[in-house]
Amino acid sequence: MEREEIRVGIGYDSHPLVSGRMLILGGVEIPNDKGLSGWSDADVVTHAIIDALCGAAELGDIGTLFPSQEPEYEGISSLILLSKTGELLKDKGFKVANIDVTIVAQSPKLSPIIPEMRMRISQSLGVESHQVTIKATTTNGLGFIGREEGIAAQSVALVQKAES
Model pTM? Predict the structure, then answer.
């Protein structure tokens, strides 16, 4: 008899905002006077999703799979890393049921860009866009995010695996 295994993972990422970098969230380049600092493209949305998927499928974490300071990951699109994570999930017999993300940023206004983020993330994972939910909020001026020193994202992922 086949038993379906359902697993949940949680991911979080934050990066500081700096001048001279493109702001990329959910694989989308967003016009802004500052971007996120990091070894790859510093896409906190995609990084949080990768960690959530890794947690759900027992793959470790983003730093284990794609170590910073490795030359092959310098400046890499996080959508490529997400795609590789999706392949690792499939290799373990898992499929994505759904992903939910909350972006925490004081600015810029993200609601007009969310549909494109959903599309790019779903395409990278080979899932339907309705399986990816993205929301944005502010901290109402509180903390490093409220002072516009950085952006954070948190994600939850549900994966399914059929077992015999």
Answer: 0.95
